[in-house]
Structures are given as structure tokens and as C-alpha cells.
Design brief:
By secondary structure, this protein is an alpha/beta fold. It has one domain: Rossmann fold (3-Layer(aba) Sandwich). It contains six helices and seven strands. The protein has a seven-stranded mixed sheet with strand order 3-2-1-4-5-7-6. β4, α4 and β5 form a beta-alpha-beta unit. The longest helix has 17 residues. The protein is globular.
Amino acid sequence: MGFYDRYILPPLLNSAMGAKPITYQRRKVVPQAEGEVLEIGMGAGHNLAHYDKSKVTRLIGLEPHPKLRERAAARAAEAGLKVEFTGLKAEDIDLPPASVDTVVVTYTFCTIPDVPRAMSAIGRVMRPGAKLLFCEHGLAPDEKVQAWQRRIEPFWKRIAGGCHLCRPIPQLLKEGGFAVEAMETMYLPGTPRFAGFNYWGRAVRA
């Protein structure tokens, strides 16, 4: 891990992921989490303030970046939540099969190197009837915006921790063996359109 990724990127991500439009989106999905919860890509812990503590019996936070885990641990203490942190990547989840009731993924699928492998790992640890709560940005529906996304993405990935702008979230879920039960979409206000088309909802194992 180079100097930029270790020391420059974490505060940039912390600031960007705390923006008001993104915070508003988090409030739509995170409070639905219940039971034993696995959060994929916890980052700096921006979701922690939005969990309903009365519904969560266990919270496991997967975040491979050590500096972001430090920030998340501080936010967990502020929120009064006990979080079991793991530094593994989404592709390498080591929990027992069928061991979680809810998986939370917010603004994370864009940076996972091997999404199919991560989807398989996520599905393996979900109990029958478990839900996947997602809130992600990705491929926009408008051709002109898509064109800009494809132009910008090679440079964007270098400065944004490997973030892909063009990932088709519904397609990735379907190919990963999930059925979307509910989903809404919109361009987030106050966010560049090339990075601001948002998908959020709930999915289950197909």
C-alpha cells in the first residue's frame, strides 16, 4: 500500500462518504438491518449512526483498510455499538455458512475487484430468508452520462481507491444469484451526474 492509499485516500473518502446526499441515502436502508448483521466495506463507519440498535444483535464490520477501520472504531464508540471488525476483503469472508440475517452494502460494490467472487461469498453466509440491503452508485441510464462515465473511469479509479463508475448494479446482483425485492433509483442532488446515479433497495438469494 503506497503513501497516497495509506495516508491521503482515507481522509478524502471519509469526507466524500459523509456528504449530505449520501448520508440521506444511508438513512433509507441501514435502519432496516436486523439480527446478526454483516456490513461489507464499512469504510470510516458512516453507517453506524443509522443502525437501529434495538434490532441488531450482532454487527460484524468488514473493512480491509486499517486507517478506515480506526475511524470506524471511533464512530462505533460514539454510536454505542459493539462492532466485530475484520480486515478481510469481501471476496474472502470467513464466517460460517448461513450465519447472518442481514448484509449491508453501501457504496462498496464499486471498489470490489472481483464482484462475482464477493457475491458468492456473501450468499454463502446468508441464512435462508436473509436480506441484502444495498445503496450503490453505478451505471447511469442516460447514454450521454454513460459516455462520460466511461471516459472518466480510468482516471477516477486511480484517485478514488479503485472506484468504478460504470458498474450495472441490478445486473451484478442478478448474476450473483440474488433477486431484487425492492429497488429505487435517482441522480443524487448536488452530486456530479457521472458519479451520482444511485440504486438502493433490498435483495434476497434467488
